[in-house]
């Protein structure tokens, strides 16, 4: 679906220009690219992009020199027609955000991302800058517990969701979780299925979460194919199932839709289920994993 928005990518590395141009074209934008600052300025005069994604260090100038010339051109143009400054997202493998923040307002910088780029994060940032995706404002702070045996995965999920001002607690196993859940009283638990189904039943995750907060939701993540767990996870009280590697945009959408409004109260208590029968109905590699 064409969004009728023009994005200009300015980077002196061919592969980066090519990949980003293709990525944004496939995402529904009109994407253009330039290999240096002067070329980028010439394109701006011809097409007036809605967004510029600008590399910090170009072969003929740095991003600040480019922005000085761009803003000067825009100011001169305002004497003739009414125009708005083009928003710019800076990308860099060298510069830190601390260097950008003090001059962001002066140069009209709307965002900053580190290289190597996370394309999901870049697309989301572009959508925010272009006003195509709203920043959710929570009526109250929400608490999320991320339970994962891999610290890197837990920190990655927590870091991504942390941008929405949630209070996030990381637990690296069920026993850490047991100590924290009654204290945090989470609105949402994102729980990694690193235990088999019988152990989850004995662990009594559902009852523990609902006792701390009857309105809480539980998301399950697993490396098992979604189709193999889809028919069973709801019996254990989970609300959503995500296969790893997790699609962060899908997770973001589910979390925000869930927590931007008050959760609907649900009946507490563990659903009655014979876990032995459930495991026997599963494929052998899942039931015994």
Short description:
By secondary structure, the protein is of the alpha/beta class. 43% of the residues lie in helices and 18% in strands. The longest helix has 15 residues, at 63-77.
Rough shape? Answer: elongated
Intertermini distance: 42 Å
Report the strand count: 10
Largest β sheet strand count, sense and barrel closure: 5 strands, parallel
What do we call the CATH homologous superfamily of the largest domain? Response regulator
Give the ordered list of helices and strands. EHEHEHEHHEHEHEHEHHEHEHHH
CATH class of the largest domain: Alpha Beta
Q: Give the amount of beta strand, in percent.
A: 15-25%
Domains (count): 2
CATH architecture of the largest domain: 3-Layer(aba) Sandwich
Structural class: alpha/beta
List the strand order in the largest sheet: 2-1-3-4-5
Give the helix proportion (percent range).
40-55%
**CATH fold-level assignment of the largest domain:** Rossmann fold
Keywords:
single chain; 289 residues; alpha/beta; Rossmann fold; 2 domains; five-stranded parallel sheet; 14 helices; 43% helix; elongated
Characterise the protein shown here.
This protein has 289 residues and is α/β, with parallel strands linked by helices. The protein has 2 domains: 6-129, Rossmann fold (3-Layer(aba) Sandwich), CATH 3.40.50; 143-287, 3-Layer(aba) Sandwich (Rossmann fold). It contains 14 helices and 10 strands. The protein has helices spanning 14-26, 37-47, 63-77, 97-100, 104-107, 119-129, 151-162, 174-184, 197-203, 205-212, 226-229, 248-259, 275-281, 284-287, and strands at residues 6-10, 30-34, 51-55, 88-92, 109-114, 143-147, 167-171, 188-192, 217-222, 240-243. It has a 5-stranded parallel sheet with strand order 2-1-3-4-5, with helices on both faces. Strands 7-6-8-9-10 form a 5-stranded parallel sheet, sandwiched between helices. Strand 9, helix 11 (226-229) and strand 10 form a beta-alpha-beta unit. Helix 2 packs parallel to helix 3 (63-77) and helix 8 (174-184) packs parallel to helix 10. The model is unreliable at 134-139 and 261-289 (pLDDT under 50).
């Amino acid at each position: 679906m064409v969004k009728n928005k023009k994005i200009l990518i300015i980077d002196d590395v061919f592969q980066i220009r090519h990949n980003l141009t293709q990525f944004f074209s496939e995402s529904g934008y009109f994407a253009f690219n330039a290999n240096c600052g002067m070329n980028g300025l010439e394109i701006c005069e011809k097409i007036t992009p809605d967004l510029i994604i600008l590399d910090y260090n170009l072969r003929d100038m740095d991003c600040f020199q480019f922005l000085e010339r761009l803003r000067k051109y825009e100011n001169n143009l305002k004497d003739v027609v009414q125009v708005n400054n083009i928003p710019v997202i800076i990308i860099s493998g060298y510069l830190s955000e601390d260097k950008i923040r003090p001059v962001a307002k002066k140069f009209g910088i709307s965002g900053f991302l580190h290289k190597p780029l996370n394309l999901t994060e870049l697309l989301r940032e572009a959508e925010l800058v272009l006003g195509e995706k709203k920043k959710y404002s929570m009526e109250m702070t929400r608490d999320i517990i991320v339970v994962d045996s891999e610290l890197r995965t837990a920190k990655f999920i927590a870091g991504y969701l942390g941008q929405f001002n949630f209070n996030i607690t990381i637990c690296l196993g069920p026993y850490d979780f047991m100590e924290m859940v009654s204290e945090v009283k989470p609105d949402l638990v994102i729980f990694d299925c690193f235990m088999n189904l019988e152990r989850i039943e004995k662990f009594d995750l559902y009852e523990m979460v609902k006792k701390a907060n009857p309105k809480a939701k539980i998301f399950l993540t697993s490396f098992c194919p979604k189709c193999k767990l889809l028919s069973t996870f709801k019996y254990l009280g989970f609300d959503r199932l995500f296969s790893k590697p997790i699609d962060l945009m899908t997770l973001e959408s589910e979390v925000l839709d869930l927590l931007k409004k008050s959760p609907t109260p649900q009946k507490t208590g563990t659903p009655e289920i014979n876990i032995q029968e459930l495991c026997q109905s599963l494929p052998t590699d899942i039931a015994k994993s």
